[in-house]
Amino acid sequence: MADTQQVDPKAERRVAKLAKQIGAFSKAHGGAEGQVAYIGERGARIVLVGEDGGWGDLVAPSYEIAEQAVEKSGITVHEAFDGEFAAKVKTGPYEWTRMAGIQVGGPSNG
After folding, report:
1. Which of 1, 21, 51, 97 supports an S-S bond with 30, CB 3.0-4.6 Å?
2. Closest CA to 48 of 20, 26, 68, 79
3. Which residue has the higher pLDDT, 36 or 83?
4. What is the mean pLDDT of the segment spanning 45-68?
């Protein structure tokens, strides 16, 4: 029997674009690992951590598209953002200042 699974060209293009972005991040950071998290109606967040400790994220319109993109990119995917994986993230002064500002109510206007 023939495969009758519908293929959505728009979703395929989005998967390919995300996989290309993941690949570029991986190449720029000496390799990468990731984690996919459902973020509700907005879709899914793909968190990327490079071998050099650099990090970033992408948002996919659905969890399925995010999963397909990380699979196509070939990176290692973790179930959760914790433990050894989370410890690979390196933060600098900018991130610490930004996090501290958020915790105390944001930047002051004078």
Report:
1. 51
2. 26
3. 36
4. 95
